[in-house]
Amino acid sequence: MIMHEWDVLNVLAKHCSPRFFLIGLPGFTMMVGDFITVATQVLNSDVVDAPRYEAQILLGSLVCFPNLYQQMSLLQPVTGAADIITGNEDIKDYLINILIKNARNETCETARCIAMCSLGIWISEELVQCTNHTQVQDALNVLGVTLKFSNKVVAEVACDMLKLLVIHMELLEKYESQLPKKIAEILVATIAFLLPSAEHSSVDADKRLIVSLLLCLLDWCMAMSVEALLEPISATLMEDQMARKAPLLDYVYRVLHSCVYGSHLFTQQSQYLLTLADVSSTEYDPFLTLGNVKNSEAAHSYVPKDFGSLLTITESKKKRNLDWIPLTARMVMAHLINHLGHYPLSGGPAVLHSLISENHDNPYIESSDLSAEVFKSPNLQLFVLNDSTLISYLQIPTEAVFREKISNSEPNIPASDVRIIVRDISGKYSWDGQILHGPFSNQLTAVKNCNTFYSNTTFIADGQSDPLISNCISPEMEHDDLDHLLENLSNSSPECLPHPQLGLSEPAPLPIGMNHDQERNIIDAITRQNNREEEYIHKWSRDLCMSVTSQKESVHHEPRAQFYYCRLFLNDMGMNSWERRNSFHLLKKNSKLLRELKNLDSRQCRETHKIAVFYIMEGQEDKYSILSNTGGSQAYENLVSGLGWEIDLSTHCGFMGGLQRNGSTGQTAPYYATSTVEVIFHVSTRMPSDSDDSLTKKLRHLGNDEVHIIWSEHTRDYRRGIIPTDFGDVLIIIYPMKNCMFYIQILKKPEVPFFGPLFDGAIVNEKLLPSLVRATGINASRAVKSLIPLYQSFYEERAQYVEAIVQQHKEIMTFEDFAAQVFSPSPSYSLSNMGSLNGNLSTEMPSAVGTILADQTSPPLPHATKTNVSGKLRRSASSLSKSSN
């Protein structure tokens, strides 16, 4: 090796694979230094046919060894060094320096990808082991810079490694508190850097990379706290002080807006977008030089047999390329708006979108399912906004639980709520709106009693309290209504407070430039003016010409129209204005719209994957013995429990992956979900195997999955044909080693593109195994789906359904007709249908529905001095009992 016998080195690197470590020979760690030396010399050589791919696998398989064998020493001299390197830290540094160098300069594309995966695994290893290794930031720097690498395959692998680190968010914060925020800034700056060329590129890989970066940015934003996203960016070199004070979330939305409407929006004002120079610091160099890749593998693509199909696919791909980046950015924005800061919901991570429909809590609908009957409801209207969002406005009875909270010190709660159901490319959401401040209950009672006492009397405005009125004024009425309103707003809506520690009813601070003497002079002037006014009133108070008849205060009446509060909300949002006519339209209510709404609601709102898991005992080499296993070793059970959490299939409301609720496919299954992805694992040992029919059904479910995770405790290698299936494009085979580590073998069909983080020949420890296997399975499933012609992601599919509904059912009408439909959504509602309704709703809406036939108009709002109206939204309760989904 010292004499550089290249033939020997190449043979060793190519044929002495990491399987040497799987055997577990006594004293095998003494050879680790030799393997590193051989692999390094092969990678540093200029030999054309050098096994660079195999040499890089050899290096990548060793990243977890230094932390396990802490006394391991490098017993071979290093070229150019006079001493023998010994000690754990030295061998780790030696190995990671080689990996970082190869990740930057390796010329073979596949070997470069393996180097990227090795860095991702090593960073995860150091974070989990809490070693606080100083070179973690160097490795992250290489991953961040590679995001803008000219070879898009390598750049996407780097993006996948950053996605992998999302699950280690807390460990990253312990290592360096600002590191997650820095990664998000790097993603924002990289997207802004690549966008101008990618949006006009005809190369599919360019747009795919931007889409991957957008989805990676979404994962990081969802994992970070809202407080961290609202902190100013860490760009210390930015000259513009105002731009430096802008929060990170602001820059996230800016780059998303640029992706939707085009990068040209900010070419004149470059300071509005984060640049690579802005994220430069002592820890991160965005302009780190990278070596070129000389040989790239040709991308595999599906080629149809007939010319007609080829034209169809070509046209579809061309249309998709035009809309892919803007559509993804729109989805990311909608996802952040709806889920940032409150995922998962109280229903658990399996529930992402609302299960509420227009028939739920609707007093005019008897059916438990969404049916054509709902279109006849006088309290429902459907709209489309900006040709991209479907919105249903529904007026429903106020829930009893809220009415029971009314006390003398709280405002009256109206008998009706406004429910807004929104459907867009990111999912379905439901919100309940309610008038937050109405007339106070105690004031209505006091005013009523006083009015009956002096309704026909007269009073003289003389500055003195009338005895009759004084008897009716209670301490509550003497309380300042404005103060009361502001106090309620401060307590119920703290987001309205300009300063968290200062209530809305607190005196405002002095205006800028005013001192206390000036303030005192103003107060004195106001006091003198008030005294003069009182003197004037007192002077003329005895004059009979100034006598007036007392006026009774208007008494609040509950609005009677079935769509009144929805109409009020639409008006408050500006939707009834003439300016909105070009972007806000009604939908035609018919049976076809109903079917398409149901179809849209049945579409997924997240990326979904189903992955099979097999257990193979020693000596098992046929499908019947493998499928008959009902349990496994403790290490196998630890892996399965680490892939996700166990869910009860009979009550699970998330992605099922074809599993049944009746127990025929088992009672439980491992399930994993984030706000962007759902994975369910078809575990062979969880499914019944007590009959031939059960084995057949088990094989059908497991064999139809594209990705198989196989745990093998057999001494012989697993062969693809043992489980016969036309699917199983990717096999991730795990072999336990004697030292509590695990050897990974990956078998895939030739057309499946590269994926990570695990690679064929990787060796990882028990702590990392579940998360790495799950991440590799998800990426493998994505790689397989990318080969499907005309494959669409969940948001592309939803966008297509929404577009079809808008094109076929948007109703173009005059402003007068639109206003009439908003005023009365169903003017032809049959009066004969109201007979039974009044009795059923008398306890729910005594003042609204009980007199609903008397008058279709609504009274004006109460006087502003006694009632203050504002809207407050809350997310509708996603009661699972209200939906059959």
- Low-confidence segments: 405-409, 443-477, 830-871, 877-885
Task: Please state the average pLDDT score.
Answer: 81
Helix percent reads 40-55%
Q: Tally the helices.
A: 31
What is the CA-based Rg, rounded? 35 Å
Task: Work out the number of β strands.
Answer: 17
Q: Structural class given helices, strands, pairing?
A: alpha+beta
Largest sheet: 8 strands, mixed
Amino-to-carboxy terminus distance? 65 Å
Widest sheet, order of strands: 9-10-11-8-12-13-14-15
Measured by DSSP, the beta-strand proportion falls in 5-15%
**Oligomerization category of the chains in this entry:** single chain
Shape descriptor reads globular
Topology of helices and strands:
Blueprint: H1 6-15, H2 19-23, H3 32-44, H4 52-60, H5 65-68, H6 88-105, H7 109-129, H8 136-146, H9 152-164, H10 169-175, H11 179-198, H12 204-223, H13 226-229, H14 241-245, H15 248-261, H16 307-339, E1 380-385, E2 389-397, H17 400-403, E3 416-424, E4 427-435, H18 441-454, E5 458-459, H19 467-472, H20 475-478, H21 481-492, H22 516-540, E6 548-549, H23 564-572, E7 584-587, H24 591-601, E8 607-616, H25 623-627, H26 634-643, E9 645-648, E10 668-673, E11 677-683, H27 692-703, E12 707-712, E13 730-736, E14 741-748, E15 763-765, H28 769-785, H29 794-809, E16 810-811, H30 815-823, H31 835-841, E17 871-875
Parallel strand pairs: 8-11, 8-12, 12-13
Antiparallel strand pairs: 1-2, 1-7, 2-3, 3-4, 4-17, 5-6, 7-16, 9-10, 10-11, 13-14, 14-15
Helix pairs in contact: 1-3, 3-4, 3-6, 4-7, 6-7, 7-8, 7-9, 8-9, 9-12, 11-12, 11-15, 12-16, 15-16, 24-29, 26-28
